[in-house]
């Protein structure tokens, strides 16, 4: 019968002290700590690699800085873009992840930091964490075998903990995925998720990670309850946490959040890049000009001082610190339409965020790490170009109350 599985074994004595998060050490609190994911660009030697390592490091540090400023409790560095994954990533991947992780540690010296190396490169992750001064790793295939995209992944707990002991890395905690996402678990269909968690605890995992069936898909709240009841070590949620469902997971010890932050909390520089890409990628937009309608003056006067300042962008005779009425008067007396790219690039951050949020709904399923990749993806897809142009037009006419003209 499903869920019955082998008889549950118990550990011979109390669990080691390292089997729990240690406040104020690793994460600082034991309930719903937030761990952001630094999604490293495709590394040198992988099929989709396109950036030099120095740029990859810079991007990772910028992302880490944004997370730090947002107030997360910890970060995990992950080679998400090294598709397709292999169970035996080369030494160049380990070397690159070490340099990147060390740079992130310098950027965030006081945050709890971890690393995951896909796919199931757990010993390599221990080595990287030790060299870079990290606190934990996320391990795949810790207990029980499963079939993943990359092939059969066998349990590794015994070898992994022995390796950790041999290299003197016992201070590095291991958070083990259970019933891992993107995998088939027919081999262990008679072992429930709570029994898998109990086996990981018995085999000295420092915590277990519960996920949905794929990246971005939520874990089942009932499974969280069952696992929390079954083990005494920390339980982390590893996928699918959003603002809408976060209440379902507040009893977890930590929430590993990647996809949601990826689309809603990119650094401002990335939002600026997206604004530039939206402005310069599509031919219909290049000839588009806009001006604020007279009918919008009431709304603008009521509460859009910052917006008007952004639209002005410094026409002749306008002092930077000029009064709102003076800015508005200068705008109206200028009597000219301005190119949309110029308007958007001069918007204040709050308005850029609005546009970004609308555009990202369309782009969120694309796999991109910089504006060059995004541009290439969109330029090859006429449907995406039309949708993004519609987003711009809608934003200009509804949010900015603008009138649009096209050059002949």
Q: Can you characterise this structure?
A:
- The chain has 16 helices and 14 strands.
- With 408 residues, it is of the alpha/beta class.
- The chain has two domains: 17-264, Aldolase class I (TIM Barrel, Alpha-Beta Barrel); 268-406, no CATH class.
- Strand 9 (207-210), helix 6 (221-230) and strand 10 (235-237) form a beta-alpha-beta unit.
- The longest helix is centred in the first third of the chain and has 18 residues, at 53-70.
- The relative contact order is 0.10.
- The model is unreliable at 1-25, 265-269, 278-286 and 292-335 (pLDDT under 50).
- Residues 1-20 have a biased composition (Low complexity).
- Belongs to the BtpA family.
- Pfam families: BtpA, C19orf12.
- Residues 1-22 are annotated as: Disordered.
Question: Short summary of the structure?
Answer:
The chain is of the alpha/beta class and 408 residues long. The longest helix is centred in the N-terminal third of the chain and has 18 residues. Pfam families: BtpA, C19orf12.
